[in-house]
Design goal:
This protein is an all-beta fold. The protein contains one helix and 19 strands. It is globular, with a radius of gyration of 17 Å.
Length: 247
Amino acid sequence: MGIALTRRGSIAARGYESDGVTAAATLGWGAPYYQTTDWSDVGDSDTAWLKSWVSPGNQWGVKLPEQVEVVNGMLRITGTAGTKTAGQVMFAGADEEWGSVGARYEFRSRVTQGDDKWAAVALLWPGDGGVWPDDGEVDFYEGPTGTSGGGGTVNVGFNLHYTNPGHQQIQDDISTNIREWNNFAVEWIPGSHVSGYRNGVRFFHTTNLTAVPSGQMWLSLQMDHHAETPASIPAIWEIAWVRQYLI
């Protein structure tokens, strides 16, 4: 179900000055097939490139459209304090088919506040007809919004889910100051590999073909609740842009 997003503020006030170091430029991925600019391509039609999502809820919390908005030209996904409600957005693949077989995605983001009970997650999820975990899940950014150790630094994980038999995972993580702007990217080439990058540097790679997804998947950015009790403060995740590159 697509929902039109609330918009406020000015693009002139957005909080980043440059793209930083990207995997796309470092690895020569070429021009984006599609990219967000001011998030004006968000809509509620079946052909919108991006849609906010409504979910009745599970152990990761309830997804509500009011927890996603465009502020100062940036996408903002929030998780609430005192309840387990948060935002989620889904991205169509090439040619607006809601998924692709193989993908390169990169996004620029920061977490301005939060606690360890909310996690920001960017993932690839099985497309129409797909089954979890048989058809995989690629979490190429999964990290807490809180920084209990201080200084803004947490371990951001890359978690590749698959079946062999039963639910299996290949994991790695990278220490990251999430209060600063960072670029995270995934390269998924069916029959070859899955790789993860932060600021143009690879920190995850596997050629285990049993784990590399072979079917259609789509991109989601979402806030997930990772605790029994609600968070004490809201979590705020700001995304400057998302870009898709053809393989």
